[in-house]
């Protein structure tokens, strides 16, 4: 079957529907899943294009709702063409682009329109967009909602780029008032300067421990305390991005029990990497919040198991190699961000399968819940009639090694280079079209821009 062609049906001995894996045929019409039949009930129509994938597993495409594409303005870091090809190669059928690291940032309606123009004709998977909350832009929020952004992101600490300043308490109150009644969601980078803890700490900057001491858990817990109070006060949907510290989980749980519409994600790097194993000067491991210790990591895994953490995303945040300061190995000066968009599914499964997670958990944490957060839960993230025919076809038991020549994002620097993982993505189908197969891509980008209608999609997890 040629890349880019429409697939009428996918047959596999292993199709994941709900919690069950069984032989089935997925019938696709007009880009949607029409029905799912047992193999015995399927009669092949003349001219019906059936993709038989044998024993490969078929499940909903991954929805990665935390991706920094960086275009326009920083396309030397990443761009829609390269990021969405990497997504397709990883079985990711939808990404949601973050509002910062592009120039201009997505903080006004005009800037959003500029981003859409830049993204047109470059996307190999479907793309939705977050807007941003910065000081003074509260009157831009509702126009951006009407234009179709999925929600908004803000920082409670310096974002790393000057054109996306962090908000103060006053800005949060004005933004929350604008968002009330809209169904939209406010995402928080939940770290906050807490003096004197975050005053400059001495130590060898090539030691990861020096950097880790400069971003202690209390920065997250105090920020999350602020988020929970705002969430309860305004009853606006709130979401904590890239939770790294398990110490904040009690605060989150308490707020939810009090009725806060609050969700939380963690990332592949907090689940796959731990502070004790980061080599001297290996700045490709730097991110914010930081990768913490192995005991903390196990607590994050436990929270995923019990449903305290709702989803796992990449926080794909690439840069050019020079910004990682590899020559000096200075963690204090290096850009903080990890590239992992292409490898999220095998990264998660390699660790999760050893902790008795099931394939249905993968769908819940990496497809369905991210789709609901982004108000796409009626279209994406589930294998059921009426949903977009977005499928990942993969072999969960097959191992492979991450090598530079197989990386499709623009800059190949990643802490996962050389890792051996479980789970090879064989093919990716986007709205019934075969966009990736065995290392090859369709010649033309077939992804759509996704615009959110909040009035009809006020989804809760």
> Which regions are unreliable across 5 or more consecutive residues at pLDDT < 50?
none
Helix content: 25-40%
Structural class: alpha/beta
- Major sheet details: 9 strands, mixed
Please tell me the overall pLDDT.
95
How many DSSP E strands?
18
Order of helix and strand elements from N to C terminus: EEEEEEHEHEEHEHEHHEHEHHEHHEEEE
Q: Rg to the nearest angstrom?
A: 21 Å
Strand content: 15-25%
How far the N terminus sits from the C terminus, by CA atoms, comes to 37 Å
Number of helices: 11
Identify the overall geometry: globular
Entry summary:
The chain has 461 residues and is of the alpha/beta class. It contains 11 helices and 18 strands.
Write out key terms for the chains shown.
single chain; 461 residues; alpha/beta; 9-stranded mixed sheet; 11 helices; 18 strands
List the helices and strands and how they pair.
Blueprint: E1 9-17, E2 20-29, E3 32-37, E4 50-52, E5 57-60, E6 62-67, H1 80-89, E7 92-97, H2 109-119, E8 126-129, E9 131-132, H3 138-147, E10 152-155, H4 169-179, E11 185-189, H5 208-214, H6 217-234, E12 237-240, H7 249-257, E13 262-267, H8 268-272, H9 294-306, E14 311-313, H10 344-352, H11 359-373, E15 391-401, E16 420-430, E17 433-437, E18 440-441
Parallel strand pairs: 1-4, 1-5, 6-7, 7-8, 9-10, 10-11, 11-12, 12-13, 13-14
Antiparallel strand pairs: 1-2, 2-3, 5-15, 15-16, 16-17, 17-18
């Amino acid at each position: 079957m040629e890349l880019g062609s429409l697939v009428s049906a996918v047959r596999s001995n292993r199709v994941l529907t709900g919690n069950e894996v069984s032989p089935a045929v997925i019938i696709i019409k007009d880009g949607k899943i029409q029905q799912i039949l047992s193999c015995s009930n399927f009669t092949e129509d003349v001219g019906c294009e059936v993709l038989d994938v044998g024993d490969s597993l078929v499940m909903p495409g991954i929805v990665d709702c935390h991706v920094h594409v960086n275009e326009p303005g920083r396309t030397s870091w990443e761009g829609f063409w390269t990021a969405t090809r990497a997504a397709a190669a990883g079985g990711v059928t939808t990404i949601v682009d973050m509002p910062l690291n592009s120039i201009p940032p997505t903080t006004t309606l005009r800037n959003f329109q500029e981003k859409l123009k830049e993204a047109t004709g470059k996307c190999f998977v479907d793309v939705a967009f977050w807007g941003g909350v910065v000081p003074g832009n509260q009157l831009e929020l509702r126009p951006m909602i009407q234009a179709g952004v999925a929600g908004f992101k803000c920082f409670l600490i310096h974002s790393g780029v000057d054109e996306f300043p962090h908000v103060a308490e006053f800005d949060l109150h004005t933004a929350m008032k604008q968002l009330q009644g809209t169904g939209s969601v406010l995402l928080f980078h939940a770290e906050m300067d807490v003096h004197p803890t975050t005053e400059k700490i001495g130590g060898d900057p090539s030691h990861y421990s020096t950097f880790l001491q400069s971003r202690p858990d209390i920065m997250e817990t105090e920020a999350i305390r602020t988020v929970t109070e705002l969430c309860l006060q305004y009853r606006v949907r709130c979401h904590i991005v890239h939770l790294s510290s398990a110490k904040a989980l009690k605060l989150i749980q308490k707020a939810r029990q009090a009725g806060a519409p609050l969700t939380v994600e963690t990332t592949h790097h907090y689940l796959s990497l731990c502070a004790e194993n980061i080599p001297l000067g290996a700045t490709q491991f730097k991110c914010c919040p930081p990768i913490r210790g192995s005991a903390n990591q196990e607590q994050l895994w436990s929270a995923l198991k019990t449903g305290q953490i709702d989803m796992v995303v990449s926080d794909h945040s690439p840069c050019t190699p020079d910004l990682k300061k590899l020559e000096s190995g200075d963690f204090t000066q290096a850009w903080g961000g990890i590239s992992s968009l292409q490898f999220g599914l095998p990264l998660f499964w390699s660790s999760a399968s050893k902790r008795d997670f099931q394939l249905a958990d993968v769908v819940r944490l990496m497809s369905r819940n991210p789709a609901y957060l982004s108000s796409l839960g009626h279209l994406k993230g589930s294998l059921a009639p009426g949903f977009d025919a977005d499928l990942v076809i993969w072999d969960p038991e097959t191992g492979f090694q991450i090598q530079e020549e197989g990386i499709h994002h623009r800059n190949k620097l990643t802490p996962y280079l050389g890792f051996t993982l479980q789970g090879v993505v064989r093919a990716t189908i986007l709205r019934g079209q075969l966009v990736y197969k065995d290392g090859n891509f369709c010649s033309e980008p077939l992804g759509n821009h996704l615009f959110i209608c909040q009035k009809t999609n006020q989804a809760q997890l």
